[in-house]
Amino acid sequence: MARLTARPATASPWRALVLAAAALYFLVPLAASVVFTVDVPGQGLNLDAYTRILDTEGFLPSLLLSLELAAATIAVVLLLVVPATVALRLTAPKLRPVVEIVCALPLVVPPIAFVAGIGTVLKWGPEHLSRTPLFQTFVAVQNPDFPVVLVLAYAVMALPFAHRALDAGLRAVDVRTLVEAARSCGASLPHALLRAVLPNLRGALLSASFLTLALVLGEFTIAQLLGFRPFAVWIVNISGSQAQMSVAVSVMSLLVTWLLLLLLAGFGGGRRTPSPTTDRK
């Protein structure tokens, strides 16, 4: 029987060319933004745009509001998607294409149409439910200090990304075998899911959380049209009067996002399960 040998990897010039083009595509605009924030005509290099960020009115409240919205959205998305995807794989795998189509709908509906529908419901509620207990619910979800309506809208928008990340994680795990093995050892179904399935989905959970975090921090259309002021809206609002600072904040937020991505990659790849081929001697 002929023995297959692995061909040594050779550096392709096309690979270097594609990587160089991608690096230019991403780094040139970033470098131009950094130069714009530190180059003051007639004064040379100046870091004043970065040093004044913390003292600018509205910076910390808008940033904290975005982080709170992101944390709440991540919790809602994981509590909604994780049980649904696991139950789908265990009990009704034939419904998976239907769930995929439903989860992909937020990618098809434009954000402007989505927020128009939300605005119509929010206006309809107070007019027709003003004498019912539900009126207070409509008021509470629009609290400017913590607009729950944004959490609900962001959870819907993050649904395609979270579902894809978790579905990819579940494809790499034999969920049914893990659950049956745990049940045969005497564990209840919730205990089997918490102790046997979820630890194997750590990378998928982190990916879904990071994608949701990036979406919430950068979302502008829905928050602006509903009249709220999270971090992305604050950046756009100050860009009219303080252009350099708005770009400096954007650069800083981009660097923070990259840092979170690196931490996520390092945390998710910290523990690797040995493959069967490496264990086989």
Walk me through this protein's architecture:
By secondary structure, the protein is mainly alpha-helical. Helices cover 73% and strands 1% of the residues. The chain has 14 helices and 2 strands, in the order αββααααααααααααα. It has helices at 13-38, 48-51, 59-91, 96-108, 111-128, 134-140, 148-171, 175-184, 189-197, 202-218, 221-226, 231-239, 243-268, 276-279; strands spanning 39-40, 44-45. A two-stranded antiparallel ribbon has the order 1-2. A hairpin with a 3-residue loop joins strand 1 and strand 2. Helix 3 crosses helix 7 and helix 8 (175-184) packs across helix 9. Residues 272-281 have low confidence and may be disordered.
Key features of this structure:
281 residues; mainly alpha; two-stranded antiparallel ribbon; 2 strands
In short:
The chain is mainly α. The protein has helices at residues 13-38, 48-51, 59-91, 96-108, 111-128, 134-140, 148-171, 175-184, 189-197, 202-218, 221-226, 231-239, 243-268, 276-279; strands spanning 39-40, 44-45.
Total of helices = 14
Low-confidence stretches: 272-281
The count of DSSP E runs of length 2 or more, i.e. the number of strands, is 2
Order of helices and strands: HEEHHHHHHHHHHHHH
What Rg do the Cα atoms give? Answer: 24 Å
Helix percent reads over 70%
Class by SSE composition: mainly alpha
Overall pLDDT score: 81
The shape is globular
Q: Give the termini separation.
A: 21 Å
Strand order of the largest sheet: 1-2
Main pleated-sheet profile: 2 strands, antiparallel
* Proportion of beta-strand residues: under 5%
